[in-house]
Amino acid sequence: MAPQVRRTAFPKVLIERDTDSEQSSSDDDDEEEEQENENQEKTVEFNDTKKKGKSPITISLKKVCKFLKCGVFGSDKSLNVSLLSPVCKKTGHEAGFKGATYIDCPMKPCFLCKMPGHTTMTCPHRAATEHGVVPAPHVNTQNPVEFVFERQVKPRITPIKPAYVIPDQVDCAVIRYHSRRVTCLEFHPTNNHILLSGDKKGQLGVWDFAKVHEKTVYGNIHSCILNNMRFSPANDGMIYAASSDGTVSCTDLETGISSTLMNLNPDGWQGPGSWRMLYGMDINLERGVVLVADNFGFLYLVDSRSNSQIGKAIMIHKKGSKVVGLHCNPFQPDLLLSCGNDHFARLWDMRRLEAGSVLANLEHRRVVNSAYFSPFSGTKILTTSQDNRLRIWDSIFRDLDSPSREIVHSHDFNRHLTPFRAEWDPKDPSESLAVIGRYISENYNGTALHPIDFIDINTGQLVAEVMDPNITTITPVNKLHPRDDVLASGSSRSLFIWRPKDKFNVSEQSDTRKIIVFGGDEKKRGKRSKDDYDDDSDDDKFNVKGKNVKVKKPVKQMTHRKAKR
């Protein structure tokens, strides 16, 4: 859907709130946005007279400073308008997107860097991501522990920094592969062409992107959001998954048969105060333990050999806060990194894992979406926070009270999006390249696009911004292949595979790229739910060669030539 520009003269409108829809991790930090001013005038008038299936709509809107999501017309021609969040609630001005331009509230600081004195469009961090970043120095350590550790690790890291290889061209894609938005991605550990994906509905997709057209989606594993998944270290045909339905599953990818290893809600729904949801997940290879964490601040251990829970839950974050990320150190698996909605990333020793035994607290100003150790040495830490900051700690053996660097990047969002997470390039031996999607759109030849950014975390420089003129949706979920020069991205309900432009031979460059479009089953039932619009307001259309293509058949295969840049 093309960006909609609001008129300068605003009538009054009824903003239809979706109180049942899932909130992003940032919503727990800003719960005051739910307390709306009930005295504001809200009216809507719909003409019930339908002419040949079309019903005229009269809308009125009071001009109040609130961040609005564009209206979406459903199959029954009804208009759905969702309020994302209030800004300052004062009258006489507005805030939000107008096309590719973000309009700041005059009563608030810059939406990008959160600092006063300028707007988002004039923010110096928008012009140069390295603005204000102090590059990583080359210093000789005086810490004996770090010295010994580096002596063991340094031989694995090349002293010469290799050139970056950026997957910058869409090779193939499946549009509307999932029925709800994509929440996580994982590459197969041995088969280079298999990509696994989870969605908000709890479905697990297995896509062979070498064949493109084959669709395998298991919809009977979880009943709601599939938040995280990891392959079994003993069997690459089995996948562990953690879901917001409070269960940990182990699924056979060949048959789709799944078994539940742990269920935190055996009695079903007993109210929001007792319903437990699982978010963070990882596997300790040495101990053979699956680690999962919930929305109340607790960590659970599951034995991957006996597929049963070990011991009691351990509180590792503030009581009542989501623990959204877990990561075991690749070099020393007993080191565990966690992050959550209590504005902290925390470092733990699994040999003495108990409440209050934290090794280090990495404080942030807002919710921490992700925290990862570096892939080769495990000595660096990269975190993504909702305050539009990427934070880097160059060594876990130095002072962790403050990060080595902070990089301003646009990934603060409202709701109805999967949280943005910066991830390391697992193939980069210099441990300096990270990938993350961008929230604020940019104007590219008159089209508002949301690029995928590759950032040098040692200098803060933007190495590359990857985009395709046909992808106008936001791309918060991105995964780099551990062995090939491939990037997988999840944008709304669709999956995309990117490869480097120079890896295509001449015949492939002049040939076509496969784009497979799947039609959602929910459209056969006529009216779609409001939750569907919240997930993908503009994903029902995919722009091919400058034209909007709508799919009515369940499955349709199509190709398009490479777009001119």
Automatic annotation (TrEMBL):
Ranges: WD repeats: 175-208, 361-394
MF (Gene Ontology):
damaged DNA binding; zinc ion binding
Q: Where in the cell is it found?
A: Nucleus
The membrane-spanning stretches of this chain are none
**Organism source for this protein?**
Gossypium anomalum
Q: Does the keyword DNA-binding apply?
A: yes
SMART domains attached to this UniProt entry = WD40 (SM00320)
Q: What is this protein called?
A: UV-damaged DNA-binding protein 2
Q: Name one GO biological process term.
A: DNA repair
